[in-house]
Amino acid sequence: MTQTLRSTFLLLFCTVLIHFSTKAQTWEVYDYDLQLKSRLVYQSIAILSDAVKIGKNENGLFLLSSDYKPAVQLEGKEVYQFLEPWILMKGEKGIGAYHEYGQKVLNLEFDEIQTYYNFLLARKGSEYWVYQRGKGTTNYLGELDEARISNVGQIISRKGNSYFLPLSSNPDRPFEKLEDNDGEYILAKTKDGYGLVNVEGTLVLDPVIDELQHTKGNFYYGFDEGQYVLIEGDLVQANIKYNSYHKITYQDGLMLEYIHGKLRRVMEGDGILLDAVGMTEVIRIDQDLYNVRFRDGKLGLLGIKGWLVNPTDSLEKIENGSEGYFPARKKGQYGYVNREGKWLIKPTYDLSLNYSEQIAAIKSGLYWGAIDNYGKVILNPEWEEIKAFQGGFGVGKKENRFYLLSKDGNQLTPGGFNKICRIDNGYFLVENDQKVGLLDPNGKQVLSTEYEYLKRERGNWVIARKNNKSGLIDEKGETLLPFDYEEILFDNANRQILVRGSYQPIVVVEPETQGRKRKRGN
């Protein structure tokens, strides 16, 4: 979805909270031919991934087999989190962990567990342990002030003012700083200076650089022995890619070199992006995107591979563009220029957005309209909002109602909706008065707004909820499974559909006969 419709439509992938009923329920299992294959009795069933299914019965929580039989009993009262391949379970004494194959690797006694693909970091109070799946061992790290898993898969721990890498080949070596970033190397500092550590925990740049900071990816900006340096990380030995005794500044993602006090170069991660005389100002407008102004008044748009819009006269600002059109401002008004800086559509608007499918939203005064790639108005500026066209359709908002719009400017949904959200494969979920319906990729309403919940599944099947009961329908509204169920789950890995009914099995207990003694053997 491109926006949240209601909280019931949110799908949580990384953190799973599962509520298990306390009463036994019947589940029916159907194949994709909608033939009943079996019946199950569980209080609850949760499908966490293709391989992980968890059920609860009167005996507790279980990992289930592909045919939904109990395979491995799980300790604890609830699934705390599922972070593939780890299942974190919560019990009375704390949190523990199972591998998705069913192996219990940590007892349910910890306050916190951090996960990585092949190991776990567990904390109880101020004490830490690490479980390494490859070795099948759990090692005690001791009492620490802090410990966390870094982006590269090393554990960074702190005790007092010293930092350590307990999974490295030298776990007792202290550092003054160990700093994670979005690259593949950890920034390390000792009393001798800054260096870099790789994914194995090995120094690939000795800590001797006077100053060092991360810029982007695997690139770093530093100062050492009177010269500025640009360094690229490497698994074996980091490389100095550029060095200069001239001043290089780095601030807010913008790196500039000055020669004799004059702006001369725009720098990138490992060297020179632009070397030009006469630059007076560089403004970073986005990641690797800059407006560059010259003494003669020309302005250009610079990207990571060079000029996106060549420097041209009289422009105040150039935005990143699409489809060969770049929004640009002159004398406070917006239009569009091409790569040569020539006007394709003259500046007559208060704002202009990127083209999408040869349609762009423009703003005049308080309202939005839309133009085609020739500048022809296809939607008058009378809209509160116009979203980018995709698949031949846009979405506009007027008087707090949303409408589906065609590329020729027609409103395809008379009366509009409270909300319209794009979902998968070009479909639209629409809402009126807290009831939802469905539009197909051609903008045709295939399901009216009479449902409490809709979720497209395989093919043209839709899980629907109406009058607090769930059923399975197709996109024509034809009923495939009746609205008799509390819950419907799709097990796509095994091509099965699970439905939970409201029926509760009755357990009959034969009372003992009063006033009569049982005979031996009876």
Automatic annotation (TrEMBL):
Pfam families attached to this UniProt entry: WG_beta_rep
Signal peptide as annotated in the record: 1-26
Superkingdom classification of source: Bacteria
Keywords in alphabetical order: Signal
UniProt protein name: WG containing repeat-containing protein
Species of origin: Algoriphagus ornithinivorans
